[in-house]
Design a protein that fits this description.
47% of the residues lie in helices and 12% in strands. An 8-stranded antiparallel sheet has the order 4-3-2-1-5-6-7-8, with helices on one face. Strand 3 and strand 4 form a beta hairpin.
Length: 364
C-alpha cells in the first residue's frame, strides 16, 4: 500500500493540473452551443434539401472566399460555421449571410477553449500529453479506490474541503473521488480512447483498432486538384438522394493530396453529432467516388462511434450534459487540490532532536 500511495501522490502532483484544466474546460464546452450569443443562433434547424443546396452553392462558388469546410446548423445552434484554416472562420445564418467573422481563434472563446481541451494549444504534441494524462487519470481512479477502502469507515461527503489544511484536503480528495469515480471513468476512458485508439482493444476486443481503422478509412480517390467551379448544389442533392432520411452535417474540401470533397451526414440511429454516413466526390469534376452508410458498420465500429457523444455530452439532452458537467467539475477540484496539497501543503519535516547529555552534578 505504501508504494501505491506514493505513486498516486507523486503522479497526481505532476499531472493534476493538466487533469484540472481538462475537467474545467470540458465542463464549459459541454454547453458551448448554449452560450454562443449571436443573431440567428436560436433559429430552428433547416434541413430542406434545396435550402442547404442553395446555401452551399453560395458559400463555395467563389474560389477567393471559399471556406475549407462548412458545418451546418444543428438542433441546438441555428448557425452554419465556416472554417477558413489557420484559426480563421465565420458563423452564417442558414441562408449563408455572415453574422460574425474572425481571423484568429482567440476572437472566439469556444474555439480557443476547444483547442485548450483537445491540444493544450500545442497541436499533436498537446493531444498526446492529454492522452497520457487521461490514462494516468484512470490509474488515479483505480488506485484511489483501493486506497479509499482502508479508510471507508471515515467517509463523509463534502463538495469542498472543510478547511484548506492538508489533512482536510486529503480527506475531501479521497471521499469526493470515490463518489465521482464512475463518472470519471466514463470521461477519462472515452477521452483517452479517442486519443489513443489502441485502448479500444481493452473493451472492444483485440482486433478492434484495426477494424475501426479499416472501416473509417476514406476510399482511394484520384489525386487531382480542386476545380475552380464545381456543381456544389448537385453534390448536395446527390447526397440527400442517396440517404434521404439523413441530416446534412458538413462539407469539407480535400485534405493534403486526397483529391476528395467529403460530405458527412447523420442518420436517425446515429449518436455522433456529425454522423459517420459519408460520401466522397472527386475534386476535379464532382463525380461520386464512394459512400459509406453508418448503418452497415460493424458492431465494434458502431460502439466506437458512441465514445465521442458520451464524452462530449451530445446525447441525453440537458440532463446528461449536467451529469458530464459534474464529472468535469469533480475532476477540476480533484486535480487542483491535489496539486495544492502536494506542492504547497506538504507536511513540514520534523526537526531532528539531538539527545541531551546528562548533566553531572557539581562536586562529584
Amino acid at each position: 500500500m505504501g508504494l501505491l500511495d506514493t505513486l498516486h501522490r507523486w503522479t497526481g502532483g505532476f499531472l493534476g493540473l493538466i487533469l484540472a484544466i481538462l475537467g474545467l474546460t470540458g465542463a464549459i464546452l459541454v454547453h458551448r452551443d448554449a452560450w454562443i450569443m449571436l443573431p440567428h443562433a436560436g433559429d430552428a434547424q433547416i434541413q430542406t434539401t434545396h435550402v442547404i443546396a442553395a446555401t452551399t452553392e453560395r458559400l463555395m462558388a467563389d474560389p477567393a472566399t471559399r471556406p475549407q469546410s462548412i458545418t451546418f446548423a444543428n438542433a441546438n445552434l441555428g448557425l452554419d460555421r465556416l472554417d477558413f484554416g489557420k484559426g480563421a472562420g465565420a458563423y452564417t445564418d442558414q441562408a449563408g449571410t455572415i453574422v460574425s467573422q474572425w481571423q484568429s481563434q482567440w476572437a472566439r472563446p469556444e474555439l480557443w477553449l476547444f483547442d485548450l481541451h483537445h491540444h493544450l494549444f500545442s497541436g499533436d504534441t498537446g493531444e498526446t500529453i492529454i492522452g497520457i494524462a487521461g490514462v494516468a487519470g484512470l490509474f488515479f481512479v483505480v488506485t484511489g479506490t483501493i486506497l479509499w477502502w482502508r479508510t471507508r469507515k471515515t467517509f463523509a461527503f463534502r463538495l469542498v474541503p472543510k478547511r484548506l489544511s492538508r489533512p482536510a484536503i486529503v480527506r475531501h480528495h479521497r471521499d469526493l473521488g470515490i463518489v465521482a469515480a464512475p463518472l470519471l471513468i466514463l470521461s477519462l476512458l472515452t477521452g483517452a480512447t479517442l486519443v489513443f485508439r489502441p485502448i479500444s482493444a481493452l473493451f472492444l476486443g483485440p482486433g478492434a483498432p484495426a477494424t475501426i481503422d479499416a472501416a473509417l478509412r476514406a476510399p482511394k480517390g484520384p489525386k487531382v486538384a480542386l476545380a475552380s467551379h464545381l456543381d456544389w448544389r448537385g453534390m448536395t442533392v446527390a447526397a440527400r438522394a442517396r440517404f434521404p432520411d439523413a441530416e446534412l452535417r458538413s462539407l469539407s474540401l480535400p485534405r493534403k493530396e486526397s483529391g476528395l470533397v467529403t460530405i458527412r451526414m447523420k442518420r436517425p440511429q446515429e449518436w455522433l453529432p456529425n454522423g459517420r454516413t459519408t460520401l466522397w466526390f472527386a475534386a476535379d469534376d464532382g463525380r461520386l467516388i464512394g459512400a459509406r452508410d453508418a448503418a452497415s458498420l460493424s458492431t465494434v465500429v458502431a460502439a466506437y462511434n458512441l465514445l465521442y457523444p458520451l464524452h462530449a455530452g451530445k446525447v441525453g439532452g440537458l440532463g446528461y450534459r449536467l451529469v458530464m458537467t459534474l464529472s468535469g467539475l469533480a475532476l477540476f477540484l480533484l486535480g487542483t487540490l491535489s496539486v495544492w496539497s502536494f506542492w504547497f501543503k506538504r507536511p513540514a519535516k520534523a526537526k531532528r532532536q539531538v539527545p541531551r547529555r546528562p548533566r553531572v552534578a557539581e562536586g562529584r
